[in-house]
Amino acid sequence: MYKNYINGKWTESKSGETFLSGNPANGETLGELTRSTAQDVEEAVNAARQAFDAWRKTPAPRRAEVLFRAGQAMVERKDELGRLLTREMGKVLPEALGDIQEGIDMTFYMAGEGRRLFGETVPAELPNKFAMSVREPVGVVGAITPWNFPFAIPTWKLMPALVAGNTVVFKPSSETSILAATLVQIMEEAGLPPGVLNLVLGPGDPVGDAVVEHPGINLISFTGSTDVGRSIMAKAAPSLKRVSLEMGGKNAILVMEDANLDLALEGIIWSAFGTSGQRCTAASRIIMHRSVRQSLTAMMVDRVRGLRLGDGLLPTTDMGPVVNRSQLEKVHRYTQIGLKEGAKLLSGGDICGRDGCERGFFYLPTIFDDVIPSMRIAQEEIFGPTTAIITVDSLEEAVRVNNDTGFGLVASIYTSDVNKAFTAMRDLSVGIVYVNAGTIGAEIQLPFGGRRGTSNGHREAGQAALDVYTEWKSIYVDYSGRLQRAQIDV
Ligand code: NAP
Q1: What DSSP line would sit under 285-342, residue for residue?
Q2: What is the mean pLDDT of residues 412-418?
C-alpha cells in the first residue's frame, strides 16, 4: 500500500480507509493508497513546522545538494517514471517522458538557485550606511497539484519551495498519487531531513480543504481548475495566507492569411490533441483568417481522422485516453452543448467505440466549425480533445476574439509578416505568446502563468517562482555611529 510520508516516516492514515489508482487506458488497478483525514494533515503540518527552523538555517547551497541528488536519480529512473506516468494518467509515453524531463529540468534549475537566490545591494542615500535586500523563506507551504502534469507540476512547487528554505505539506491529485509518492521517495533517498517534505494522500475534500484551512500553513500553492482555485482563495482569506493559483485556460491559435499552413497544421494538431487536450495550455480555439479557412479546415479534418487512439505505452498510439469517466462525460457534454448552440461538427464528437477503446476512457478527437466567439464551447474550458474553429477577417478581430474570454494563459500566432507578429505580441492579453509555434512547449526558465481566471497575479517557474516562495527582507546597516534620518538629513 502507498502511504503518507510524515516526519520522515511512511505511515498509514488512522482512517484505515484506502482508495485505488487505476490505468485509464484499460482499467488495470495500479495500487492501493491510504486515504487521509484532517488529522493526518494536522500531523503533517506539525512536522513541517518543527522542521522549518533547522531547514531555513541550513545554508542554501547545502539544501541545493539534496535537489541535485534527486535530479540525478530522476535522470537514472526516467524511463521507469515515464512508464508509470503513462499507466497512471494515460498520456502517450513520449509525452510522459517529456513530463519527467520537465521535472528534471526544474529540479536542476532550482538546485542552481542554491548558489544564487540573488538579493540586491543598492546605494544608501546617507553616508556610512549600507542597504541591501535578501530573500527569506515564507514558512510552511501547502502544495496542491493536478493530475495532468503529475510529475512536472509538483517539481514546479516543491523545488523552489525547498531550495528557498521552506518546508512543505504536499497534497497531490488522487488520480496520480502513486507517481507523487515515488517523487517523495526520491527526495527522501536524496537526503531530505525528516519533516521538510510531507505527503498526505487523499481527495480534495477533506484533505485539500484541511491543508487550505490549516493556520499553520503560510502559503498555498495550487494548480488546478478555476472553480477549486476560487474556493481556495475564499477559504484562505480569513487567515490572510499567501495564495498562488494557476488555473484553467481557453487558449487560441491565430492563423493569419500569410501563414505557412503546413507548419500551422502541425502546431494545431499537437496543441489541440496532445495529452488528449488535457493541458492548461491546450489549443481549444483555432481563430482563422477567412482566406485560409477552407484549406486549413480540410487539412485538419484529414489529419485528425488518421490519429490512432490507444494505450499510451504502445508506439503505434498517437492519442491516449482522458483521465477518468467523469472527464469523459464532461467532454461529451460539451459536444452536445456545441451542437445545441449551432456549431457544426466536422470530426469526432463521440466516445470511441473502436476496438481497443472499450476498456478505457477514450474520446474521439473533435473539431467544431462555425463557432461564434460567445458560444460556451468557445468560452469554457473543456479539457479534452475538442477544438473550435472561429473565422475572422483581420488580425484586430482575431486578437479581440482571443482576448474576450475569462482566461488568459497562452495564445499563438502563425504569420510570415513581422509587423503582425509584433502587433500580436503586444496586444494578446495572455501570459505566454508563441510566434509560429503551437500553444504548448513552455520551458522552465521563463515565468509561467496567465491573466484573468487563469492566475491570481503570481507566476510559476523561472526567477518569478522565487517571488512566490520567498519574502523580501530589506536591511539597512548604519555604521556612521550617529543618528542619521532618512529623507530629513539630506
Ligand atoms: P482540480 O479538480 O481543481 O484539482 C486540483 C487539485 O486540487 C487536486 O489535488 C484536487 O484533489 C484538489 N482539490 C479538489 N478540491 C479541493 C478543495 N476543495 N480544496 C483543496 N483542494 C482541492 O483540477 P484537476 O482536474 O486535477 O486538473 C485540471 C485543471 O488544472 C484544469 O482546469 C487545468 O487547466 C488546470 N491546470 C492549470 C495549469 C496552470 O499552470 N495554469 C497547469 C495544469 C493544469 P483531488 O483531485 O484528489 O480531489
Answers
A1: EEEEEHHHHHHHHHHHHHHHHTPPBS-TTSTT-SB---SSHHHHHHHHHHHHHHHHHT
A2: 98
CA-based torsion, 432, 433, 438, 443: positive or negative: negative
CB of 131 closer than 8 Å to CB of 474: yes
Per domain, the residue ranges of the chain are 4-247+455-475, 251-435
Q: Quick one: which atom of ligand 1 is closest to the CA of 226?
A: 32
- Catalytic residue positions, numbered: 246, 280
**Taken in order 238, 243, 248, 254, is the CA torsion positive or negative?**
positive
Residue 143 contacts residue 92 (beta carbons within 8 Å): no
- pLDDT tens per residue across span 100-146: 999 999 999 999 999 999 999 999 999 999 999 999 999 999 999 99
Ligand 1 site, residue 205, Cβ cutoff 6 A: yes
Question: Per-residue pLDDT for 356 more than 90?
Answer: no
Mean pLDDT of 225-251: 96
Q: CATH class for domain 251-435?
A: alpha beta
Q: Which single residue is written with the C-alpha cell 493541458?
A: 279
- Kindly state the cell numbers that stand for 73: 536519480
Ligand 1 touching residue 105 (CB < 6 A): no
Checking if the pLDDT of 355 tops 90, the result is: no
pLDDT at 490 exceeding the cut of 90: no
- All three cell numbers of 460: 510559476
Which of 106, 151, 217, 280 has the most ligand 1 atoms within 8 A of CB, as the residue to mutate? Answer: 280
pLDDT (tens digit per residue) in 427-458:
999 999 999 999 999 999 999 999 999 999 99
Give CATH for domain 4-247+455-475.
Answer: 3.40.605.10
